[in-house]
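TL;DR need structure tokens for one chain.
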Amino acid sequence: MQPASGRWIAGALALTALTWLALLAGLLAVANRVHDDVPQLLAIKLPLLQSNPELIFGGESRTVYQVDAGLAAQLIGKPAGAAVNIAYDAGEPLALLAAMRRAPERFRNAQVVVSVAPFLFNEGVKSAAVYPQDVAVRLGVVGQMISFLPLRVGTLIRFIREAFNARLSADQHVADGPQPAGFGLTVIPRDQRDDQWAAEIGSHPHYANWNLSGPKARFETAALCDMVALSKKLTVVVPPWAPRYDRARDPSWREKEDQIVALLTDAGRRCGFELLNIASVPGLEQSNYADEMHVNASGVPIYTRYLVSRLKR
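>> reply
TL;DR here they are.
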């Protein structure tokens, strides 16, 4: 009886697993169909374009929390609204490209400045929080399941959720709604405790399982290239990390960062965009950082002034 009982349990478990996989595949298929390349977090920022800005800051969190577009407008001698910050957490080039294609008249006369981070190109990073949603949809159902199961099912769940959120935002015309405050800047309210800081950057999760030869690097660099024809000028920014970290003493970090810069430099030469690799900012001290990647309120004007000073207009 025991062998028969064991086979019955094994069969029931196998049937349950197959049923679960079929259900997940079905949900992914629906999510792929309803997905919109402009995510909800970006759609919320797009009303800022109603002012027809001539300087548009986009990209990931190191623009969201570090670039004061109101100050940037002052620095270029223009009125409020001439510069806006439409970046969002884990923002990817594919999403910004989709926004540019949807409203080309808002971008064609503007300089677009987009920040990028290692996780956007490193295929080894598959965590739910930062995996680019517009890359995920391009993998298809089979590619998604192969890439993320069994250990990264959370990434698939987030993809499904964000796909429906993006579709809802598109259907509700969120991009035509009220403008966010502060021209898009969000300030980090408090600094991270010292015991929460990374010991060094070479082993930071953004550089885990290092691989620049996958679909992330291919799709995201292609998106940057496609932006060139849709803007007056495109500038791609690699922002700095906190000053406590020294590339000279962290060869793993230095090598990986150099590879990203080489990837973007090559793409910029081929496609016609400018690359700003900002390893450090004069006057931006450790006390101006909230965590290893982002400045606090005191660092925002320092970083903004330096970035604007480096832009070729």
